[in-house]
Amino acid sequence: MDIKQLEAFVQVVEARSFSRAAERLFLSQPTVSVHVQSLEESLGTRLLDRLGKEVVPTPAGEILYRYARRILALKDRAVQDIHHFLGELAGSFEIAASTIPGEYFLPPVLAEFQRRHPKVKVSLCISDTGKVIKEVGRGTYLLGVVGGKVDEKGLSFVPIREEELVLALCSSHPLAQTEKVDLRDLESIPLILREEGSGTRRTFEEALRQVGKNLAALPVVAELGSTTALKEGVKACIGAAIISPRAVKDEVHCGIIKTFKIRGLNLRRRFYLVRRSKRTLPPPVEELESFILSSLATGS
């Protein structure tokens, strides 16, 4: 058993996929498979089961995963402490983000952070808001950036940016030729939504509740698991979507999609940096937290 094998195993468990784990580790999929196979052989038991397209840990794998996370965290902390002693900022760690901050806000911030601190390696995992909050609470990730917050003891949410969601329509839709869209228009437009747990969907549902409405009264025709899928559904004229204007900026510029603010519906939302409130962060993570806050706070 060695560190590289444990790193491969942990990434496969968290990504639920050998191919996605390989992408995160910048390795080939066969290399990741060999690492996990060697680990299973050294322990004399199967650690992972393949269930359709997903990979899940066996009971033995669940036990090893808990210890492997601690071992890797200790390894990273040892490296960080040595570099800190030498007056350097170094180490590797993962953070998580929901789709919009993960795909649009954070990449340039992380690029600049790593330019300033070349010995720090930051990996970014993208999921929906609900899952990111859950994993930060469990300690899987030390930091997260999400499109909503929950009232959960032990978690700290710091607002960093705002935006107003819009209704996106394919340019050939009859309503796209109008100048405005009202709340009542939603009752006659086929809608495609993000999945439950998405910050975008939570904002939409909360906005409807504020005006005495709910999703059950609207013609929802599909639920899709990513912002990209949502955007492609709009382009294919499957339906209209509530979406971040950042996600469709290029399509609007090209005239493929038209967006509207919905009169009578407050779709403003905040993005937050989330962390466990009483957890002491390693120096590189603490430095990144400060850098994210200074780069993104109060922006829109």
UniProtKB/TrEMBL annotation:
PANTHER family, per the entry:
HTH-TYPE TRANSCRIPTIONAL REGULATOR, HTH-TYPE TRANSCRIPTIONAL REGULATOR CITR
Cross-referenced Pfam families, in alphabetical order?
Answer: HTH_1, LysR_substrate
Signal sequence range: none
State the family named in the UniProt similarity comment for this chain: Belongs to the LysR transcriptional regulatory family.
* UniProtKB keywords: DNA-binding, Transcription, Transcription regulation
Keyword field contains Iron: no
Q: Boundaries of each HTH lysR-type domain copy?
A: 1-58
Q: Name one GO molecular function term.
A: transcription cis-regulatory region binding
Which InterPro entries does the entry link to?
LysR-like_Sec_metab, LysR_HTH_N, LysR_subst-bd, WH-like_DNA-bd_sf, WH_DNA-bd_sf
Q: What is this protein called?
A: LysR family transcriptional regulator
